[in-house]
Amino acid sequence: MATRLLLGNESLAQGAIDAGLSGAYAYPGTPSTEITAYILRSHQAAMGDIRCAWTANEKTALEAALGMSYGGKRAMASMKHVGLNVAADVFINSAISGSHGGLIINVADDPSMHSSQNEQDSRVYLDLAMMPCIEPADQQEAYHAPAIAFALSEKYRIPVMIRLTTRLCHSRATVTTGDARERNDFSLPEDPKRFILLPALARKSYAKLLDRQADFIRESETGPFTRYFEGPDCSTGIMACGTAYHYVREIVGEDCPHPILKIGQYPLPQALIERMMSECDRILVFEDGYPVLEGKLRGMPLRENPVIHGRLSGHLPRTGELNPRHVASAFGIETPVPNAASSVPTSRPPALCPGCPHGDTCNTLNAVLKSGDAIGKLFSDIGCYTLSAMPPYESVDTCVEMGASITMAKGASQAGLHPSVALIGDSTFTHSGMPGLLDCVNEDANVTIVIVDNLTIAMTGGQKSSANNRLADICVGLGVDPDHIRIITPLPNKHDENVAVLQQEIAHTGPSVVIAVRECIQTARRSRSKGGSS
Amino acid sequence: MKRNLILAGVGGQGLLALAAVIGEAARSLDMHVLQAEVHGMAQRGGVVQSHLRYSDQPIHSALVREGTANLVLSLEPMEALRYMPMLASDGALVANAVSFKNIPDYPEDEVIEKEILLFPNHRLVNAVDLAKTAGALQAANMVMLGAGAPFLNLPLEALRSGIRTVFAGKPEAMIETNLRAFELGYEASEAEA
């Protein structure tokens, strides 16, 4: 037993290590990154007792974890919410094949879009996959969540999702850790045919998954993170999922007159919900993310008794993460603000670091695409370079999802756009850009793809890039004409020659690739200071 | 005893280390600690803030409610003004006087200073000069820790231990520089009182 100050992500990672974890795979993404970063730094990973790696993308991460589970070991994959879109195929089908060794999928949602392009709620995926989910309410629960999820997973041979939100991932609290469990020995499934999802076999596995739903609901009703707190005043009953429970406690205190149903496991604990619905005149629902529970309770046509209040009724904001002021307001409690907001501060958005290689690449792109009569468009991707959408660069025209730059540029060129240029980072290219480049080669698309290779996954803090300095070889392998794979160094004193290279490749009819190679100044600075005398 | 703090700054100024020291000091005194941080995109030179709460009683929300912060402690003067609605009526505003200008429309320094000086319970400290005196510009965050220390309700010795814990494994000279920066910040802050 030890008490430490841990991020929710670190607490979950330590809990997984202590629960007998053998494998952890992930693609970095805010707010999930620190789970895997913590395990990578651990003694167990260094000794080789835990296999831990950054993978090419979230799909390959979860598939590897499923494979390790097939070998009887406890494994997990971690990702941000939109990463689950990338891994959705294996996520949903792994619920049908089932798992063998305990299998956890950690998904970190980002309500308020602190560092994301949407605030999708991963609990919606539970309706598709029909797998159980644990939603810890605090850092201490995050520590216990892997042990609970692994046990549930091995009891029913089913993957279990752990749903997190930014505020839990990135908040520290005092956490008491416990003893470590042994890791599982290698073993193969007793009934291996369930992993063959041919239609005839898949139908049987699917029927079994449906049969298990009642068991999963019972597990949620009796699970350690679910609790019904009695209260004498049934004019209002409170339902709170995950971290929302603590915002409620912050406002109503320990002696709340109303009954409170704390929900920390899915599928929803039906009997407890039915009890509160039958005893209370009004239900006030608190959940961070989408109004998933509230929507189910309201029903269609709209339920009138009890009346359901939450994000959909306007008692809480429809979008954005919850905070104590919102929760107080839902209880009709004002939040007095003695000091008015100052009008002096101006906005200070994130920006490319001074000296960033992407800045030089964007200057080159602007010189070619945005000067004079040029009507070229720059299809961008997910990474630091997307920050060039803002002044002073205003270079990129699109940013939709991982890998979209190359394929959108291809489609736009086929609609008649020229120049049609894609901008994509090294790790985003290996995450999901490579198949798009193959499409460009196969269709001889008239696009120019600029890969900005800063030799790291920079936006999330400098994780190892799967591209690993082999981008030109990969492009040759995918079939790009080697004469139209050009490597430039994005530096101010190379600007004129880089502009010439880009102009030549845009003039070339057919796919061409310009690779701008210069190390991220953040990782360069870190490796310099490590190499120094101090 | 319960404290609600807003720690403010710009990505790259060492805000998380500042938060870690206070959190560690409170934890070492067996208090309940909750601290919300900003990771990811916003760290690229954008606004960063941390909500830090500690108490001898259990606390629940990681976020401070508007109007209840006992202290806004900022590594940058304009950022200090961003959180005025968070401050309680008797709250304190403690800021580094040296601005960090990475945006084109940064307000006039005099306008910012005037606004801070208008707030009754304020301390304005030149963390850059004091960090240089302590031995390293990077220790400006520890200068501001010292400047905020009179409002933390934590023993100075617990904060010094917190610095040693958070920077454990770093060269002793660097730890000494940080401790010196802390003392200089504390003295400068108290001299302003």
Describe it for me?
The complex is a heterodimer of chains A (534) and B (193). The longest helix of chain A is centred in the middle third of the chain and has 24 residues. The mean pLDDT of chain A is 96. In chain A, the strands form four sheets. Chain A has a seven-stranded mixed beta sheet, sandwiched between helices. Chain A is an alpha/beta fold and 534 residues long. Chain A is 40% helix and 17% strand. Chain A has three domains: 221 residues, Rossmann fold, CATH 3.40.50.970; 104 residues, Rossmann fold, CATH 3.40.50; 168 residues, Thiamin diphosphate (ThDP)-binding fold, Pyr/PP domains (Rossmann fold), CATH 3.40.50. Helices cover 40% and strands 22% of the residues of chain B. The two termini of chain B are 23 Å apart. Chain B contains seven helices and six strands. A six-stranded mixed beta sheet of chain B has the order 2-3-1-4-5-6, sandwiched between helices. By secondary structure, chain B is an alpha/beta fold. Chain B has a single domain, classed as Pyruvate-ferredoxin oxidoreductase, PFOR, domain III (Pyruvate-ferredoxin Oxidoreductase, domain 3). At the A-B interface, strand 1, strand 8, helix 11 and helix 14 of A face helix 1, strand 2, helix 2, strand 5 and helix 3 of B.
